[in-house]
């Protein structure tokens, strides 16, 4: 129960990696706040976690790209629970195309969610983190943000930007007791990969030294570590969780 009584907000937590992180936080005793686009999905997930793990969990419809909605929701979280101990900036999308075909709309959409969304959410909670003098921010970036990827100009730019913000916050907020770290997952089996052709997925898998895709729970375990006191001296780190893909 390493997160007992901690209040953790996870964005994009109705499915995939965010769901696994919210689940792991609940299993570790945290009060979990599920943010996602659909109120119904977020509330249903929170209800399931609350029942399964006997913790407080609540679900809210929050579009991380909407700064006004994020500010309002953050204020409600602080009013409801009195604090925030962990923020997991997980919500993200893809809208792939090679550069010569990438539209401005595709660029803007990915940047507004994957990059500005991370700024919006952290900006909305930073005063509370600083007033408390404690907290852990976990940003879900990607190996694509470090190494680039064919067809992902927008996604790579956003995920690299997330690493820049992570390190900046580690410097700005570290002295005040607030840690910021990033996880760069490799290939993780979630619906986000649904648009990829089977043969591409098989080739990707064959390039992983562990010989398989990762499971969302394997990212969640690392997020839970970063949120916990076990990571008390981990700040500004970028953890690649890839099965060895990048070596
Ligand atoms: P997913 O598509 O399965 O889940 C993403 C969740 O985010 C969904 O529940 C979706 O509704 C929510 N979401 C989307 N836009 C949102 C918005 N504007 N506001 C709030 N919620 C929103 O994706 P996933 O694979 O679980 O990815 C989660 C994170 O991990 C993303 O940031 C993604 O870029 C990153 N990532 C995934 C992989 C992978 O292989 N799956 C690899 C590297 C990084």
Q: Could you please describe the fold and organization of this structure?
A:
Helices cover 48% and strands 15% of the residues. It contains 8 helices and 7 strands. It has helices at 16-27, 39-53, 67-81, 104-132, 144-147, 153-174, 198-206, 216-227, and strands at 7-11, 31-36, 57-61, 86-89, 135-140, 178-185, 238-241. Helix 1 packs parallel to helix 2 and helix 3 (67-81) packs parallel to helix 4. It is globular. The structure holds nicotinamide-adenine-dinucleotide. Nicotinamide-adenine-dinucleotide (NAD) binds at residues 11-12, 14-18, 35-37, 62-65, 90-93, 113, 117, 140, 142, 185, 187-188, 190-193.
In short:
With 247 residues, this protein is an alpha/beta fold.
In percent, how much strand structure appears in the residues?
15-25%
The biggest sheet amounts to: 7 strands, parallel
Overall pLDDT confidence: 97
Which strands sit side by side, in order, in the main sheet? Answer: 3-2-1-4-5-6-7
Q: Please tell me how large the radius of gyration is.
A: 17 Å
Q: What is bound: which ligands?
A: nicotinamide-adenine-dinucleotide
Number of helices: 8
Helix content: 40-55%
User: What would you call the shape?
Assistant: globular
SSE succession: EHEHEHEHEHHEHHE
Which structural class fits the helix and strand makeup?
Answer: alpha/beta
In whole angstroms, the N-to-C terminal distance is 33 Å
Q: How many E strands?
A: 7
Chain oligomer state: single chain
> Which segments are poorly predicted (pLDDT under 50) over 5 or more consecutive residues?
none
InterPro entries: KR_dom (IPR057326), NAD(P)-bd_dom_sf (IPR036291), Sc_DH/Rdtase_CS (IPR020904), SDR_fam (IPR002347)
Function: Catalyzes the NADPH-dependent reduction of beta-ketoacyl-ACP substrates to beta-hydroxyacyl-ACP products, the first reductive step in the elongation cycle of fatty acid biosynthesis.
Catalytic activity: a (3R)-hydroxyacyl-[ACP] + NADP(+) = a 3-oxoacyl-[ACP] + NADPH + H(+)
Pfam families: adh_short_C2
């Amino acid at each position: 129960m390493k997160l007992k009584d901690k209040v953790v907000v996870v964005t994009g937590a109705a499915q995939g990696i965010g769901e696994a992180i919210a689940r792991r936080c609940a299993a570790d005793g945290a009060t979990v706040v599920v943010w996602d686009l659909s109120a119904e999905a977020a509330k249903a997930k929170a209800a399931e976690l609350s029942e399964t793990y006997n913790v407080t969990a609540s679900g809210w419809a929050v579009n991380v790209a909407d700064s006004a909605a994020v500010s309002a929701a953050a204020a409600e979280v602080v009013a409801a629970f009195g604090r925030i101990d962990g923020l997991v900036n997980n919500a993200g999308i893809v809208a792939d195309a090679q550069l010569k075909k990438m539209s401005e709309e595709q660029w803007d959409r990915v940047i507004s969610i994957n990059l500005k969304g991370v700024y919006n959410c952290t900006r909305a909670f930073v005063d509370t983190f600083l007033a408390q003098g404690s907290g852990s921010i976990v940003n879900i970036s990607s190996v694509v943000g470090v190494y680039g990827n064919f067809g992902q100009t927008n996604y790579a730019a956003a995920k690299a930007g997330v690493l820049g913000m992570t390190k900046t916050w580690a410097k700005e907020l570290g002295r005040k007791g607030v840690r910021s770290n990033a996880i760069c997952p490799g290939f993780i089996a979630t619906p986000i990969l649904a648009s990829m052709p089977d043969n591409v997925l098989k080739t990707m898998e064959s390039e992983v030294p562990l010989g398989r895709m990762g499971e969302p729970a394997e990212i969640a375990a690392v997020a839970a570590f970063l949120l916990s006191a076990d990571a008390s001296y981990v700040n500004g780190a970028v953890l690649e969780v890839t099965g060895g893909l990048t070596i």
